[in-house]
Amino acid sequence: MTAVVHATGVQKSFGNHPALRGVDLLARPGEIVAITGPSGSGKSTLLHCLAGIVRADRGSITVAGHQLDAIGEEERSKLRRNEIGVLMQFGHLVAELTALQNVALPLLLRGESRASAAQRARTWLDRFAVGDLADRRPTQVSGGQAQRVAAARALVTEPAVLMADEPTGALDSLAGEELMAQVTLAARARGTTVLLVTHDARVAAHADREVVVRDGLVVGPPRARGAGGPSVTAEGPVAPGSPA
Ligand code: ADP
Q1: pLDDT range class, residue 153, cuts 50, 70, 90
Q2: What's the pLDDT band for 141 if we cut at 50, 70, 90?
């Protein structure tokens, strides 16, 4: 099956510090892939490159059939609006807007009518069990609730891929567990591919497959997961010459 995310030889430096040194990564439709590794290994930089937020120096990145390095900023924005949902450690909700308005925003930005955007936003708030908080502003809800609203906003456009960077990093373990259960349920129901950066093994356990990043390189899967066993991990990309 065609990959939803396909990265080859991705390099990114900050000044003369190489954060990514030639990353290969592939995610298929509906796959949930955890990206783990030590702090400073390049996980967030990789996710930002894959989401088109940061431009890679070298290499090729294709997301939902669009080659990021071959298109201009306008097309990249359009791709981000339509095909990529982003969920960060701190939800970055707009403080002045209610939960409903925050979730409706991505739909309004791509030209949907107010009525339709509000209706869909309400459905997604319900899916994340925060429908009763629709009229609250971010400061009027708990951290866990705010992160659910952010998750609803990331998925409301039904993107091909959700890119999540330590989505539970600011939550206690119960709230984190609940968020991950809801995110993976929603993603699996829609065949959404998820790339999940985390240092937390309990969060990574929600994924179908895990790839480890070390010193700016994907160094392979750490272990087999799920019923597919080794054949699942065998599909995972491994940097040439690196230990599996
Ligand atoms: P991780 O997500 O695995 O903790 P990062 O991708 O955040 O790692 O960082 C990888 C490396 O790149 C680190 O050495 C970090 O200090 C550096 N880095 C990341 N972002 C920037 C930036 N905007 N400017 C300078 N250096 C950066």
Answers
A1: very high
A2: very high
This prediction's pTM: 0.88
**Which atom of ligand 1 lies nearest, measured to the CA of 38?**
3
Nearest residue to 179 (alpha-carbon basis) of 127, 128, 239: 128
- Using most ligand atoms within 8 A of CB, pick from 45, 48, 195, 215 the residue to mutate for ligand 1: 45
Q: How many domains does the chain have?
A: 1
Q: Is residue 191 part of a domain?
A: yes
Taking the CB of residue 1, how many other CB atoms lie within 10 A of it?
7
pLDDT at 1: 56
196 in any annotated domain: yes
Report which ligand 1 atom has the smallest distance to the Cα of 41: 3
C-alpha 209/C-alpha 116 separation (Å) is 36
Give the pLDDT score at 240: 38
Cβ–ligand 1 distance for 184 under 6 Å, the answer no
* CA-closest residue to ligand 1 atom 7: 44
We report the CATH number of the domain holding residue 12 as 3.40.50.300
Query: What's the pLDDT at 221?
Result: 79
Report which DSSP code applies to 197.
Answer: E
Residue 235, pLDDT > 60, answer no
The answer as to whether 217 is a domain residue is yes
Q: Is 36 in the pocket of ligand 1 (CB under 6 A)?
A: no
Burial code of 36-47, b = ≥16 C-beta within 10 A, e = fewer?
bbeeebbbbbbb
